[in-house]
Metallo-beta-lactamase domain-containing protein (Taxus chinensis), 329 residues
Amino acid sequence: MQSSDSNKAQEAKGKNNKGLEIAGYSIEGLSIGGQETCVIVPSLRMAFDIGRCPQRAISQEFLFISHGHMDHIGGLPMYVATRGLYSMRPPTIFVPADIKEHVEKLFEVHRAMDHSELSHNLIALNVGEDYQIRKDIIVKTFKTYHVIPSQGYIIYLVKNKLKKEYLGLPGNDIKQLKFSGVKITDIIETPEIAFTGDTMSDFIVDPNNIDALRAKILIMETTFVDDAMSVEHARDYGHTHLSESMQTNFKIRQSCSFTSRHAIELISPRKIRMWANDLVVGVGLVVGCKVACRKIIDDKVKQKIDVAIQLWFVVCWSRKDDDAFADTR
């Protein structure tokens, strides 16, 4: 049984887990190299990949799976089962069309073993397809380059904007035009959040992926960071090397934050400064889900580092502040 002090500590910890506040969104995440990846946007009730199903992911109604590797999809049955246990609405799960049949079989096996419904809505999307989640939000897929079929997701906000030729007209005139069947608005789709999942850097130079690069927030993987692993090695395993990101950062116009997949002892302060200079903008190095923005990591933070925290770029058009990247475990 936990002591009252322990409970208070847990409550305080929960209150502080606000995520990385960036471009108007709170971004939370848990990613351990080769074990699990899950990135959460609570305000949109969305999770990207499910990892081993961290607790915070359960309350997200929409789940987007980038590919079928276990560290990205392994917690899927638990995610659905736990929502059912809590009498939550069946989730909507988006998967690459290539793996839909396998996912359906996965749930069939678990239903047989668990004798439960595991209710959910499963939607398969091919690269380039879109789906309207609600009136003001659609999701589109884009091509990524991994060792198995994979895809990224872009979340768009949809707004109706009055056409230029009708600007300045009295309200009654606009109403009359609308009632007479005249189309008075244009539909404006703004890319807000893009998520790559595991991929090589090739997606950056793919001309069809321009919206992923101009999204307010781009969450992309950069698994390898230094000379210990070559670019060729990264590409052999379908991942991105940090040096490739630097070489192509002229295409990524957002400002950047990133989290580390590696023990901080493996990343020297000199390299941190070098990355910040190469990226041109202020870089927040998030270590063990504790952010230390624009600072060289101190010994206390080093002691908290997990041995394997995945390196992600969380890039955005306009940084707002340097709040902590939430520990969702």
Summary: The radius of gyration is 21 Å.
